[in-house]
Each structure stands twice: as structure tokens, then as C-alpha cells.
Amino acid sequence: MTHPPLVSIRNVVKNFSELEVLKGIDLDVAAGEVLCLIGPSGSGKSTLLRCVNFLERIDSGYIRVDDQFAGAVVKDGVLHEAGESEVARYRQHIGMVFQHFNLFLHLTALENVTIGLTKVRGLTKREAFDRARAALADVGLEHLQGSYPRHLSGGQQQRVAIARALAMEPKLMLFDEPTSALDPELVGEVLTVMRRVAEAGMTMIVVTHEMRFAREVADRVAFMDQGRIAEIGSAAQLLDTPNSERTRNFLSHVD
Ligand SMILES: Nc1ncnc2c1ncn2[C@@H]1O[C@H](COP(=O)(O)OP(=O)(O)O)[C@@H](O)[C@H]1O
Ligand SMILES: [Mg+2]
Asked: 17 CB under 6 A from ligand 1?
């Protein structure tokens, strides 16, 4: 049986004034699929993720996640611009993890996870606390729930950020170079957590330079170059036997 894709990206164009950053992106991601996005700096990877989360407005095309559109709603069979509450509702189903953790520095690990649950999801303090503790346990940090970010390593901070996103029970998780800011010895613990999230069936789009992670965890890998998806295939196909010269050239410069 075939399922409709959870994420459909169709002919998406994004400009920053004169600069065309996304030049017609078409991409489907199936429910439960892990898609790794690789490519040189400036090729548009972050912009694409930000468009999926509607942190950026697209200039044409559309992005659909499950039954909702980024920045748009269907009325009488036509796409209209979404209002604030519809955008908030859309974003509720998407978790995002950034290179620079973006934790609240004045809040403990536990409070960083509960705040969205009470403020956005409307859970009671008690419910939020229980769910946040479980989320921190899932990333192996239950014992550090009372710690402030400054007392946590980069790897631990990133695991809190992942717990915070997962506690919101998203349908889709976006990761933008989640290990790029970490000291090498801290990369593994974050990748281990991400691997577990993938194994639990989460749909994930992961921008990464960690080729081993891509090879072992990704269902498919897409190579982005100059605002286009230059090549997409299974992890083994794209990484071991790339079709395009540009992909081969890029891969020869990463480990
Ligand atoms: N807010 C912005 N304003 C203007 N240009 C931007 C903005 N964000 C990104 N860009 C430009 O868009 C291009 C793609 O950037 P980005 O999506 O960050 O690439 P990547 O994540 O692949 O390194 C780059 O040329 C970058 O300078
Ligand atoms: Mg980027």
C-alpha cells in the first residue's frame, strides 16, 4: 500500500531581493522517512528548512505538511494566505533543531522543555512537568533537569533542544546542522539521540555534514547545489555511486 507523502514541496522558489536562493524545489518525504540534505555552504539548505517551518515566506510554489500548507490555507479549493493563528497551528506540528541550540539561558533544562508545553500547548504545569521529564529521560538527561544551560556541555544542550522539540509531539522534525557547533567528542551523543528518534519512526529532514550518519540512518540523501536539488537517491546510491559530477566532486571534499 502506498501512503501519500507527509511532506510535499512543489516548485518552491525563494528570493532574497535580487538573489534567487531556491530555484524550484520539488521534494516529497514519506511518513517515517529520514531524508538527509547535503551540499555546499550557500546552496540553500537552511533556507529550505526555514521555508518548511514557515520562518521564511516562499515566493512561489507550495509546501504541504500532512493536511496543512506553509503560510496558506485552502478555501473553496484555492490557496489563501494564512492568518497568524493558522500559522501557529501549522508550526505546532513541526519541531526544529538548530546548530546553536537556542535554549533559554535563564531557564533550567526542565523549564526549557516545559515552557512550550504550557504556553503553546496549554498543558497544566503538572502535565507539562511529567511530559518534559519523560522527554529528558529519552535523551538521557533526566539527572540534569535542574541544570542551567551554562552548566551543560554543548552536546547536553543540544539534547535538551531535541527533547524540547520532541515533547511537543511533532509530526516532522527538522535538523539544521545539529552537530556543527560541537566539539568533536560531543558529536556522537547527539547523533545517537537522533538515531533513536529516527528508529522510533519520526519523519526527519536533516541537514548534515556527518556522512556516516547519513549513510547509516538516512533512507534517502539529497544533494543541494545552487538552489536546486541536483541529485537525490538512496543513501548508498548517492554516497557511493553518485550520478552527477557535481555530487562526486562535493563528496570528495567531505569525509
Ligand atoms: N535573510 C537573508 N537575507 C539575504 N540573503 C540570505 C538570507 N538568508 C540566506 N541568504 C543567502 O541565501 C543563500 C543560501 O543560504 P543558506 O540557505 O543559509 O545556505 P546553506 O544553509 O546551504 O549554507 C546564501 O547566498 C545566503 O547568503
Ligand atoms: Mg545552513
From this structure: no
